[in-house]
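A common beginner's mistake is to predict each chain separately and then try to dock the pieces by hand. The better habit, illustrated here, is to supply every component at once so that their relative placement is modeled jointly.
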Amino acid sequence: MQEIICRFSKGEEVKWVSHLETMRLLERALRRAQISIAYTQGFNPRPRLAMGPALPAGMTSEAELVAFFLSRKMDPDELKQRLNEQLPTGFALQTTWAIPGYRKKQTLGDIDTAEYIIIVKGPVEAEELERRAVGLLSCKEIPLTRQREKKTQHIDLRPWILALTVSEMKGAAEIKMTLRTGSTGGARPQEVLEQLGAAGPEWEVSCHRKALYAGRSEERTKARGVRLRGLHRGQADHRRERQARGGR
Amino acid sequence: MEILNYSNLLGTVARPCRYTNSEWNSVRKDHSKAKARFCLCYPDVYEVGMSHLGLKILYHILNSHPDYLAERAFAPWTDMEAALREAGLPLISLESSVPLRDFDVIGFTLACELTYTNLFTMLDLGGIPIRAAERKDGDPIILAGGPGASNPEPLADFLDAVVLGEAEEAILEIAEVAAKHPPSKDRKGLLQQLAQISGVYVPSLYQPEYSDDGRFAAITPRNGAPERIRWRVIEDFDSAPYPVRQIVPYLETVHDRIVLEIMRGCTRSCRFCQAGMIYRPTRQRSVTTLLDQAEKAIAATGLSEISLLGFSSPDFNGIEELIDGLIEAHAGQRVSVSVPSSRTDTFTVSLAQKLARVRRPGLTFAPEAATQRLRNVINKQVTEENLFDALEAAFDSGWGGMKLYFMIGLPTEEKEDVEAIADLLERAVSLGKKKLGVHKGRLRISVSVGNFIPKPHTPFQWWGQEAAESLEEKQAYLRSAVRTRRVRLSWSDIEMSRLEAAITRGDRKLGEVLHGAWQAGARFDAWAECFRPELWRQAFENARLEWKDYANRHIQFEERLPWDHLDYGTTKEFLCREANAALEGALTPDCRVDVCADCGACPRSSTFAGN
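With all components supplied together, the output reads:
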């Protein structure tokens, strides 16, 4: 069994394709590309693939992650090329890398940090939004209630906002935010926009996910001075770009 | 040509993927180079419409031709319709995002009468006048086909042309005519030309007459239109076009799989079944062709399931060879095969066992009626022994659950027949408990109880639907008589069935009712959450027509029927004969294995009139 991680992008034309639908289309593209994916056991075997944190529908991204578990070894570059030929317009694999050895623990489970770039245009100027962002960051606590079906959840948004900046861009505001995400809890871009007062029908919003990485493990790694598995910010991309430059 | 997009609306509607294009295998051609541009429409949501094989076949045929193009559009869900109206945006095709009004031909696939109101929505939002008489040069031709158009009379005032029967060949003939006489220049001339194509019915060239009591009396052709329109049949079904490069939807559709059409038509002659009457004769593809199509379709789509389509798939000559071949070739890729079959015998169970190699399929049996007498009336040639043998085999091979189909309100049905359903279910449950032993906790029998709807072109077309109150009583009885939690009963809505019964046997006068109900807000009438019978009651009243006269009246054999000029091959004499045989409980065997029943739909029949 070989684990290959792929970073892929999702463009404007397919931004409404949901997380689950993306997973299904990857399964089908794998079959068309005749890549030998491993299957789960049981009555209803499913292809073994693991997705990174879900991208909310309506967002574009250049940083989505998926892990494929292959039953036969394959060169990650070959996988990238063959799968890209089978992906619908709007989807493209950017980088692929193999995880050495077989790990029982889910590699993508370490992903806990996401960076977004959001362009908003609406009744509030960029300057004012910037002031609000500074104010928000100076809060010790940002209490929030989440309503999901019948359950109400009280949460604090503040520890999950790692960075937040606003700048003016051609009459609109460009908001960059780094948020904690993943299974141990996290903030949604929409919630931060609501806190800034930049959400609602009178706002034009376009959201883009810029990066996904293992933020906590990156901090730990930095402290220990060792590098891990290519899931840190831009690490794998940088290495590949370096290789590509060197090749030319 | 106007190109639009919905990007500002999609954030506010449910399932925005319904309106997302660029699915794998979708085809985008240059509008300026096409000689005839079709928009193929299905008047229901994307998930339902994209499950329809007929639409995929026509899409493939038209787009394979260098001179023609075909795109798709589906009915916007109510939230999207409201959003479009508020934004003042038209309904656009998926592929090129072009408003419907900019196409040459709009082709509707009609599978069910309860989608008719969505057809109005689509025309209206597409910027096309709803009434055929109001369309001018420059407006597209509105074409319809499919089983839901087998009696198109209620829609006659809204459709320009209807294809009777199988459209694979006719669609290219229509495209050729549309390319020669573009509707932008000479609409009238184009309609005249279309009426000359075999199997194409142009309703505006026919004048209906009504008798003094307001009932349909006759219909007369004008301007050289043919007296009768004869349905189209694909003679060489084996080499008929099959779309291996099927579009792979993002959204999970109703039938999210490769649909392999193994056979067309069914001659088992169940007397209530319209499909079995209007798609004659039975034809099947060769195993070699099918294995080849399956392989190509898997390679082109990457889908993980193949479903064998046929009205009675186990009747396919060579079914075991086909299934073995498919499993042999594709089990390694984890592609499973399913046979949605309702044939009730042990053979079906043994097929299901073969299929379980990749994924265990569900089992469905359709005895339709619970007494032998009533099964003989409807010509369902299944005995109770067949059914219980099949159930026993299923339990023995590890199935804990299955689905059973029954109908209530069938012609000549008595109280005993309904009581027999409850009794039969009880015995099925005790058999299941005995067979499953310690695993009896797994026993689940889903029972779907439908309401009989008399359909045109069937031997029961003269029979009025049972009154709603009486159907309600029968449902209530079954609800109280079947108490075990091992059985899950589901029902079809009585008002909905009544509406379907009224429209399906309707004449042109019903057009007023359809249009009135739509104007009052009727949408997605086949969806329980949208269906509003009160709108229909009002629409009938406003049009001064009786709902029950259309749905529940027994029509005399001598009366002229609104669809008599639409010839689906079977002769009226045959349908009459079958209707009388039903009352006597006499069986008519399947002509594939027994004597010819002389239905008139194929050259074997002495009354065959040619195609």
